[in-house]
Amino acid sequence: MIKKVILIALLSAGALFAQVKKGENIEVPYISYDIKMGEGFAQVQANCLTCHSFGYMINQGPQSREHWYKKTMKMITHFKAPISKEDVEIITNYFAEHYGNGK
Amino acid sequence: MQRRDFFKMSLAVSAVALSSSASAGVTTQPIDNRKVSRIAFPEKKPLITYSDRPPLLETPREVFSKAITPNDEFFVRWHLPEIPTYIDTETYTLHINGLVDKEIHLTLKDLKENFEQVEVTAVLQCGGNSRSAFKPQAGGIQWGSGAMGCAKWKGVRLRDILNRAGLQKEAHWIGFNGKDNAAYYESPSFIRELEISELDDHVIVAYEMNGEDLPYLNGFPLRLVIPGYYSDSWVKMLSNVTVTKEYKNLFFMDVAYRVPDNDCECEDPNDKAKVTKPITHMNVKSVIGYPTNETVVHHNSHVVVRGVAWDDGHGIKDVFISTDEGKTWEASVLDVDAGRYAYKAFRFSFKPTKYGKTTVMAKAVNRLGQEQPLAKDIQWNHGGYKYNGIDTVTFEVV
Asked: A54 with A33: CB under 8 angstroms?
């Protein structure tokens, strides 16, 4: 059974196909991922999306709870992200639930 | 929603969400059904798109039927999301400091006018290219086979720049930093370190790629080019070169881009190796650019298999093709040499004899006699690095 995970990319306003002229401001397109809503998403938004895209996370594929926990901890240990203990648990639960592999 | 429609979705993530976990340690062919995005990034054609921040773009398979990867189809992988969106080419400066006799600060004009200009054609491949082949899924972006490309790079020898500054006697390590930054101020920079002994005359600071300025997303205006090495140390938007005596402990050196330090560079998913080493040199590998898994040909057609093969600079000796699922292998025709670090393009003509699915496999062998293993014989490592299984495509004869 295929899960209905429909991810639709939307273009941000702006001339994305314009030629880049070096020495002028370059605009990298913004991708709006269709994110699975659920408990914990507010914490994901506050802690994760401030630094990187949603695609950067979910393109790691469905992963185990342990994987998501370790990734979250890596952000604290190595990238110095100010994520609280409570949020670590909530974020781990969110990914295990929506982007987990059942393990 | 039907499966076929599903795969038509433009974002690569669609396919990832589908893959199911297989039994431990079984390596397969990398994922190959992803479509390019409808969104084109600056100076790029639409590519397979994983992330916009930082930008992560993969080159589709069919591009690898050519020995040179065009700039607008060349893959993109940044580590940090804050990339300057404005470069002043008049004032952009490369700083050389640390254990040097004299700190120097070079503008692009200095580099282009006051140093010998050199060129090298070299393959740039992410250490995690083809990561989606590993089961259980290794951590990291689930790349197909297109986190790589080959370009003719033009620039200045790093050694010439270092000699201009003058290395002090105790100089041993060189750290490279680019202009990209993390979103959070306390996050570490993407600094790479190399031992001076690793830097030969082929290592250059490049400002040009395939006869054009480097594309913005490939590191404009300057990047490090380390032929034969995986791309993790090819620092983009290079701005600072610091010479030191001691190795500095850095996240992107000590934790990322490492494989088990044993002969097979492999480990048990449930009992990971304690000692690891950096990935450094590329292993022998080939990818088929044509046909693809979507090719359909009429019977009686001639099929010219085309692809590219490379290693870390020892050079490709042969690329063998099998059209009978690996029972027999025949040598393909190799292009003339574009240099030992470049893609070696290969071609092999044949006429399919039966209707339906036909499988083509490619196996490269280098001058040391090292050859690609079958995908299923590739052993697992936690980061999903250095996959080099025999490439397989299945096309259809109707």
From this structure: yes
